[in-house]
Backbone:
């Protein structure tokens, strides 16, 4: 694999992440929490924010497909990105339910494969999920403080 070409593609992916609507969608994703696959599916169809959710998850599944098909060097991708793990951890609890609900057994498979192939994948997932839980609790406390 040509490392220079891989680096060019990574820079192009980075540039796409800086696009205004994509940046808004990525920021929104940090505030997105649901409890089950049904709520996740409803969020994907929400007229106000569903586009953000679909944009972010499809972006990272697309980027993962480039790695999975050899267009981008896997280790370079891991070294240059971390947000894909965050996004995967957002969808992970709902992954099987969504796949069953829509009869799409390979939905987000590229992203799942990319994450699970990481060195220490389960440890990294556990750490990210712990950080996300703390973030959700802090957001809830801040919201309660503003309401009270």
Residues:
């Amino acid at each position: 694999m040509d490392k220079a070409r891989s680096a060019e593609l990574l820079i192009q992916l980075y540039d796409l992440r800086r696009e205004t609507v994509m940046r808004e969608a990525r920021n929104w994703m940090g505030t997105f929490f649901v409890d089950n696959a049904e709520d996740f599916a409803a969020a994907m169809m929400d007229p106000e924010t569903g586009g953000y959710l679909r944009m972010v998850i499809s972006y990272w599944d697309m980027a993962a497909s480039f790695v999975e098909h050899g267009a981008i060097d896997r280790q370079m991708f891991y070294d240059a990105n971390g947000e894909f793990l965050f996004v995967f951890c957002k969808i992970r609890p709902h992954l099987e339910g969504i796949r069953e609900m829509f009869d799409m057994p390979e939905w987000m498979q590229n992203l799942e494969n990319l994450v699970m192939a990481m060195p220490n994948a389960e440890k990294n997932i556990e750490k990210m999920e712990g950080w996300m839980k703390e973030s959700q609790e802090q957001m809830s406390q801040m919201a309660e403080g503003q309401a009270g």
